[in-house]
Each structure stands twice: as structure tokens, then as C-alpha cells.
Amino acid sequence: MVQQTLTTPEELLRFQLRTAMTMEHDSLAALGELAKAAKSAEVKKLFRHHASETEEQIANLQQAFTLLGFKESTAPSPSTKGISKQAASLLERSAPKLRDQVAVSSALGNEHYEISAYEGLILPATAHGLTDVVSLLQANLDQEVHTSEELRSTLEKILA
């Protein structure tokens, strides 16, 4: 398969948006798996809540595509695939009493990746004066940061 060479900032932004869409869809699928693997009701509830936020984030990305006049599509996100594989591998190897810790820790790693992905989108969108797009991406970033804080707090409780 021949890969397109990205030659303009606009092409790069479009590709990164497509990758972000894949990232969020991968995250949504992973959250379902993590919720199934989790043992405590609190952790399951946290994953269900984050899944609904992820659906909002997908809607925000869809709006960003529309605002930019881009056809909505996806692009490979090997990082999120790898994070999900790592989580599955750890869960498979872990005793039931460690499942919540592994699930929350894995989700935290994914959140950090998503934070960096949104920061990488917001900076060029800001530089191009795409205010409406930046607002959508910032809303997603804000949710990711909040979720990261919730996951960290939950992990601290598990480890206490």
C-alpha cells in the first residue's frame, strides 16, 4: 500500500484529525473491555462514564471535520492499538484481585496519549486561526485531563 506524503500543514492537520477519530473509536472499544474486566462497581461506573464522554469527543471531532470542510474519515492509530494490546496482555496475566489496578492503570496510559494527541492538534489549529475547531478540540482535551485526574485518584484509592 502506497502512503500519501503529507506536504502541507492542512494535509497534516487532516491526517491528525483522522488519527484522532480512530484513537477515540479505539478508546471506546477499549473502555468496554476494561469495564468487563474490572471487578469493582466504582471502576465499572468510571469506565461507563468515560465511554459517554468519548462519544461526545467523537461528535466534537465530527464537527471539526465539518467546519474544516473535510470528509469524515479515519487513519491508522498504531499507538492506541498497542495500548489496548498491552492492557489485554496485562489483564490476561493478572489475578482477579489485580484487575481493577491493571484496568485503571491501562486507561490512565491511554488518557496520557490522548492528551498529547489533542495538544498536538490544538497548537497548529490555533496557529491557523481555526477558533471554532480549537474550541472543539479544547473541550476534548479538557475532558481527557479531567478523566486522567479521576483515573489517578481512583488508582491511588486502589493502592491505598
TrEMBL record:
Protein name as it appears in the record: Ferritin-like domain-containing protein
InterPro entries: DUF892_YciF-like (IPR010287), Ferritin-like (IPR012347), Ferritin-like_SF (IPR009078), YciF (IPR047114)
